[in-house]
Amino acid sequence: MRIDGRNITDEVILKNSIFKIGHVFSVSGLEIKIQIDKRKNSSHLLYKGELIKNISVGGYLKIAKGFSFIVVKIVGEYIKEDKLFNSEYSKQENKIDRILIAQLLGYIENGEFEKGIKELPLLDNSCFLLDKNEYRLIHKFVKDENDMPIKIGTLAYERDQEIEIGINNLFASHIGIFGNTGSGKSYTLAKLYRELFLKLNQNKEFNKNAKFLLIDFNGEYNHEDAIIDNKEIYNLNTRKDEGDDKIQLTENDLLDVELISIMSSATEKTQKPFIDRSIRLYKSVLNSNTNSNVHFRRLLIKWFKRAIRISDKTRGDLLIDYFISLVPEQYDEDGLVIDLKQDIRWSTDNNGYYFHNSEGTCVFNQNPNYETFVTKTILYNVIKDLEISENIISAIIQFMYLQLIMDVLESRAQNEHIAPAIGKLRSFQKDFDKVISTNSKRNNLFHKSNFIVLNFDKVNLKIKKMLPLLICYKVYEEHKKELKKGGKSLNIIVDEAHNILSYSSQRESDTWKDYRLETFEEIIKEGRKFGVFLTIASQRPSDISPTIISQLHNYFVHRLVNERDIESMGKTISFLDKVSHEALPILSTGSCVFTGVAAQIPVIIQIDKIDKKNEPDNKTINLLKNWKII
Prior knowledge:
The chain is α+β, with helices and mostly antiparallel strands. The strands form 6 sheets. Strands 13-12-27-26-25-14-24-23-15-22-16 form an 11-stranded mixed β-sheet. Strands 3-4-9-8-7-11 form a 6-stranded antiparallel beta barrel. Strands 18-19-20 form a 3-stranded antiparallel β-sheet. α8 crosses α13 (392-409).
């Protein structure tokens, strides 16, 4: 057979004479050393009038072992002097041998590159540069015919080589995007999901079965066109007396001991068991055969009658104050607050409370007909008409006061141990009610769009810490129930994830940390089989639980300069090679190391641009423009 007047054998000989650059001279475990031919030490080689880039650190070679081709990556090089060099017959530069240190990547078989080790090379096996087709093979990350590719960028050092990733391989996995501020991590996050929606947004089944929840702590994705335009945005706000948007939750979402304990900063051994008793009391009243409000008032009246006969003034004053805290403030016709205990006074002589008005006087703990006078007190007449609050947090506070009254009278609890938890919950409720509503029957976040953005930019720290956990846990549990219907998926995206996934912060209680671990570590360990996948982006990967980072499947690592962050990447990402790891501090903006199950090999890529209107709002301001100097 002839090509252009030449035998095909001549073509092979010509190609091999140029592309063969050395041979294996050492195999030590998985480390391979290659000695480069002295004639192949230039930066470029010439083949058919075309300049070919010669091998260097970070490049790839193939090693011919019989009819097998083993692919390696160059991770280092050094030189050694040829001790047998004869200066009479050779040039001085020829006494230097160039040695490459290579790492095994995979092998080429049946026209495809396969990742992994099939066999090791032998000494003196020939080593070749990759041709264009072979170079494309090892960067071909979409092999499954049933998968769909999306282009996310190009190789940073070979801009002609496009990088495509399979939608299923990437989005049916847990993704980590890391990098210092200004390195391009939020842009990468936006690019990935922008490309996904460009590819599938017109597909009805995709819009029906795929759900995306983005937790946005800095307000970068809350403008109309960020990533996509047909999304629903909840702009949460605790800085106003009345918040902007509110998330709809049900009673069951909030009736959780762990959650209420976090809200009230409850201690583990004293306050948390008390909260558990209060919630059980609330549930028993609501589930009783009697009307719940009637049942609630009966309990209040029963324990009020008992409290008002107490002979201990200190405990009695506390109990009366608890009852007053249970009821809303009352006002007279002039708009002044009524003193609800003005007709209940303490008698030192009789060591008890007494009632006095124009109809008579009664010492409650000495008069057998005391109940007649109890019903005449102002506080009793407010209590007898009290109803369980429709606001679930307010209702829990009511039952916490009732449970505390019962415990104090039964000598099962002390005020100073329990009351602070109620006070903290009341304080927390003011902000909680600005962002949460439990009055609506609709509690599905995804009723308008399959892409939801929760903007926490204007909420205080406590809400910012607690609410994302609650929402993520809620949608995760709901999705597990929906999975029985089949075909559903949920992608939870957390930008600036260190806000809630930090394991080193000392500001949170152990209860909060346990709740967080239970939520996100369950999602990342078990979520995949339920069709729930997590994407996290952070500028401080060293602050995030190593358990979470080590369970990620795909990584986009932008520039990192902090030593602890770089070290954490090396320890937790098994896919990261030495060259990619050492490149992390010097990556340019928009470049990142991409590695994981969706990539056959670690590569440094330049993320493609997206339309300006779809970019996240995170650009560094131009001071000179702001100052109107330019």
